[in-house]
Amino acid sequence: MAPHATDSDVEMSHQPSKQHEETVPNQVGDEMATPVNTDVCIIGAGPAGLMLACLLVRFGIRTTVFDERSDQTTVGRADGVQPKTIETMRMLGIGNDLMRLGKKIYDICIWRGSDSVSLTRVGRETHYPDGIVDILEPYILIGHQGMIEKAFLDDLHERGVEVARSYQFTGCQLRSQNKTSVLVQSSYGTAREPRSIEASYLVGCDGAHSSVRNFILEAPPRGSGASVWGVLDGELDTNFPDIWSKTVIFSEQYGSILIIPRERNMTRFYIEIKETASAKDLGEAFVKQRARDILKPYRLDWRSVEWFGKYQVAQRVAAKFTDPSQRLFIAGDASHAHSPKAAQGMNTSVHDTWNLGWKLNLAARGIAKPALLESYELERQKIARDLINFDYEHANQIAGGDADALAKNFRQNIRFISGVGADYAPNVINQGHDVATGAAQPGCNVPPAKATRYIDANPIDIQLDIPVLGQFRVYVFLGDITSSTAQAFLSTLSCAVLSENSVLQQLSEAAEQSYEKCPRPSAPEDVYTNPRSEWTVYLDDVPHLDTKGKTCTEKWLGSVGTSEAVIVNVRPDGYVGSLGRWDTRGFSGSVAAEWLGKYYGEFLQVPKPDLGTL
Amino acid sequence: MAPHATDSDVEMSHQPSKQHEETVPNQVGDEMATPVNTDVCIIGAGPAGLMLACLLVRFGIRTTVFDERSDQTTVGRADGVQPKTIETMRMLGIGNDLMRLGKKIYDICIWRGSDSVSLTRVGRETHYPDGIVDILEPYILIGHQGMIEKAFLDDLHERGVEVARSYQFTGCQLRSQNKTSVLVQSSYGTAREPRSIEASYLVGCDGAHSSVRNFILEAPPRGSGASVWGVLDGELDTNFPDIWSKTVIFSEQYGSILIIPRERNMTRFYIEIKETASAKDLGEAFVKQRARDILKPYRLDWRSVEWFGKYQVAQRVAAKFTDPSQRLFIAGDASHAHSPKAAQGMNTSVHDTWNLGWKLNLAARGIAKPALLESYELERQKIARDLINFDYEHANQIAGGDADALAKNFRQNIRFISGVGADYAPNVINQGHDVATGAAQPGCNVPPAKATRYIDANPIDIQLDIPVLGQFRVYVFLGDITSSTAQAFLSTLSCAVLSENSVLQQLSEAAEQSYEKCPRPSAPEDVYTNPRSEWTVYLDDVPHLDTKGKTCTEKWLGSVGTSEAVIVNVRPDGYVGSLGRWDTRGFSGSVAAEWLGKYYGEFLQVPKPDLGTL
Fold it and tell me: Pathway involvement (chains A, B) (predicted)?
């Protein structure tokens, strides 16, 4: 998460709208190419805003990103990329350099010392143990926030979009009678020239002191459990042995410290200062001395310090993530805040917009019913609350010094910490819990699994194989493809889905028309992908030794009988949407087609001419 | 391999030397920065030359690469990267984009048709079956030669070196009485301006029609079994199902064809034309029609054609790969030629210089005895002959149409085809076959294996973990690190190795002095690697499920008893150099230190002041 500034909140300015000032670029370095309107305006180019921009841009939505900083982050700040975030970035093909160059943390060490007992290692464990968390890449990836932001910025650049920097958001207002657009005001550069742009949607990814939030909430969210943290990145000279693991150290006398190994031989120290009333008193020298005290009798010095930051953190969740018109949204630190210790902030933030992005795409195209955008707040507010609850306990236990309690809390929450355990409750897009017999549960991420791609016999990771284009994925599992009833089911299913009365067919046609009008832009590397449908037929025949004991079908569904067919609708963000299960001896595929139509019809629609801005 | 031009050999011009014309750049775009001498001059910027350049540059050797072409390859030519080549590139950290974007071939299909039997698939098999070939990445990676060359060129660029293009090699002569340098002559640009440069070594990577070769051999190598091939890259419109596998098709009437799937939806056809006397008659239309005939009754058309090439191939191996002075060398197609069918050419070529590079580094630093450079020809000529023998049979069987015989030949040679089976005979650097009890055999590549890096608990691939810096790696295996005799062995070994009389210590000091004088240049990404010695302590504790049944020790050595110590010397190119095995209850580590000194002393030396050019 971005550190809180410890000064007071930025003053809000509700400027009157200026009509269509034609000076807002959506590409830096091209300031005279001036769209006066955009589909989505994003305030803030941190991880949450950049994730949203990457998604919308590749889906073909005109996107403008404002950031008040003149340059991107180069050091410090957020740095822990959790396994689910790694998976999400892999799904997007983003961050290859980061994955290669970042430091990987596989284990966690716990040390303890008191007046009577000298500092001792009391535990060393695998951070994400196999069999407890099911993830393809079971480590935390460490790179400074600049490396992470660069991954997103490079991806935007590949599709011709740059962040508009030195733009400070100053206010906004819903424009027309039926509230289908919002006028966004900003000031540009050091001269603070006023600028404005008209957007269909405005998303505030502008951090803990969000200004956009003030247009959604009457009062800023109240925090509880404020604590002060010092954070230091530097290269150490020490004889303490565990600086290459994630390490928690409790000193009865001096408090606790969290050590995170960094890329480029650096080490990060998180230290909580309880006795100081405010972060103002907390300097680099103070934090260094405290770290030395805690690590005694080990020697500790710094060869160099790259970054020092301080946080004053109150745990809080905004009461609303959107306004009643569904034109304004907040995401990331703007909507929730918590301690940095569990390395969750950035990970939760990018998944806020990972959730919002595809919904905004469908809404902007007029294909979404209001229920779809409503699900954003429903789903992500739950996760923010889960996070606060976990964080409160976790931070207390790190500070409290009970190694056993910390280990227990950690083990109980490990799925959640990894990110794969961010489960959504049943709602209009998460249905069918009654037929879910495996780990593919509605509202949950699909578990990683291996399969063989039929067309070219390549073993693939099924959760990564299909490019993220904003589309739902409909997986049909057949227990036995050679069974005649299964084949009949498949062909009646295809016929029914493709018939012109079919809801799915009508929605597909509407989507196709929209994408013809506003196509997805291509990046140079897109020529190397194979998004055609014949590339999405898989055999679940990878040997158990290669899949660590469970095939895709076994993982996702428990089992599928030889005459059974199961359909899993997977949302564009990789979550299970809904499941259906049929015995092909008793049911025709047309039943399944109807079921599909019912599901998608609940939150998607064929746009009426006056809806849909694209 | 680069296709043979079918015109006659380029005329050799033996120009008289011009004294030190100061106009030869070693960096393109910097033509006025003119070193008049260099350590190694490489002729030809194909894969063999570029691999050599990448190695020498990162080892700190001044390197100049001349290429007669004005631009790099963009389409066609070599395209199959075999598993060993993938591993080698991973060892160097080269080609990350290529690995990500290239097409992967996992299986091989065989089809057969005749007058009486319509074209039918007679087999579909895994190309590199698990359990038969032990490789980390069991596929052929496909990308056009430009993608492959770009991987090397990018790596050179990172270290500040560019290929000098539009330079045509015209001749050379050994300069001084004691033959320690060679004057290399070339002509530059369309005006063919004469240029010259003085080099300690000259390496001809200038293809099948090598000009450098003429200064090593009296007569060019004679070929046998000449055949004519047409090669076509394009996007197909076809209903033939197996264009995404490597596919061999035999038609009794029309001959055989080899299909290789390509990146960017393309397909490559290799077709051998037996009845035409020369390649001159072989046009694109002819090849297309022949392919259509062979694929009947399937429909076949081309949406686009990216590249058409023709080859006239004679199988041959040069009698000498170096001259008596050990100042001139040839590598790659300059030293051997064969059919393109088994996708071996480029793979063999880059491993020629993978073998030569580290030897030249040590020779240029004066640390190598003559025996080290002598081993280049010994080792690589054997591989070239193995390749010719295999290729002769393999090509005959592809052309001959006996699917069973082809499959058998293929299975027998699969280790060799993958590249990991390029085994060298015993010589001064490959010793100790008597104590080799596992797959780590002297003169063979170390098998891939997993281990846990002790310092940060990261699971790693041991064959890839240590950066390639031109150094030998000495792996010490202990059956039980807690055994007191093992610990005593380890400490007496360290003391003996570090004592000032130790051969290893003297060689290390000589190397250190040389690297201080001519250091390895750093690339921006080097800050992310950890080459320090504490990063090379490993635990062989990865669960059998993750290692597919065999730990590193089991793979490499069979077994190591609890009181045993085994030392494996691994050459800079990842080949096993020698092995020693001791019972630590009976032997002190000083015995092993002596053994180490004896091994390294046979081919390394402390440079005398008048030797060594660095």
Answer: Secondary metabolite biosynthesis
Q: What is the complex's ipTM, to 2 decimals?
A: 0.88
As a whole number of angstroms, the distance between CA B570 and CA B440 comes to 10
Q: Answer for the pair B213, B204: CB distance below 8 angstroms, yes or no.
A: yes
CA-based nearest residue in chain B for residue A458: B106
Q: Are A482 and A564 in contact (CB under 8 A)?
A: no
Tell me the mean pLDDT in the region A177-196: 92
Residues B283, B193, single domain; the answer is no
What are the structure tokens assigned to B259, written together? 């299909």
Contacts of A549 in chain B (CB under 8 A): 545
Q: Are residues A261 and A357 in the same domain?
A: no
Clarify whether residues A243 and A137 are in a common domain. yes
pLDDT-based confidence at A393, cuts 50/70/90? confident
Alpha helix segments (H runs only) across B82-124: 83-92, 96-101
Looking at the predicted structure, is the pLDDT value of residue A14 above 60? no
Claim to verify: residue B456 and residue B571 sit in the same structural domain: yes
Burial of B481 (0-12, 13-18, 19+ CB in 10 A): exposed
Nearest-CA residue of chain B relative to A90?
B100
CATH code, domain with B540: 3.40.30.20
Q: Quote the Cα angle for B251-B252-B254, to 5°.
A: 60
Cβ within 8 Å, pair B525-A101: yes
With 60 as the cut, is the pLDDT of residue A8 above it? Answer: no
Residue A157 structural domain: 37-75+144-221+317-416
pLDDT of A531 reads: 65
Q: Does residue A345 belong to any structural domain of this protein? A: yes
DSSP letter, residue A28: T
Report the range of poorest mean pLDDT among A226-240, A421-435, A520-534: A520-534
- The verdict on B456 touching A (C-beta cutoff 8 Å) is yes
| Whether residues A526 and A463 fall in one domain | yes
Domain boundary among B371, B389, B417: B417
- Residue A525 is nearest to which of B101, B103, B546, comparing CB atoms? B101
Per-residue pLDDT of B72-108, as tens digits, reads: 776 667 678 999 999 999 999 999 999 999 999 999 9
Residue B165 shares a structural domain with residue B205 = yes
Q: Does B524 touch chain A (CB under 8 A)?
A: no
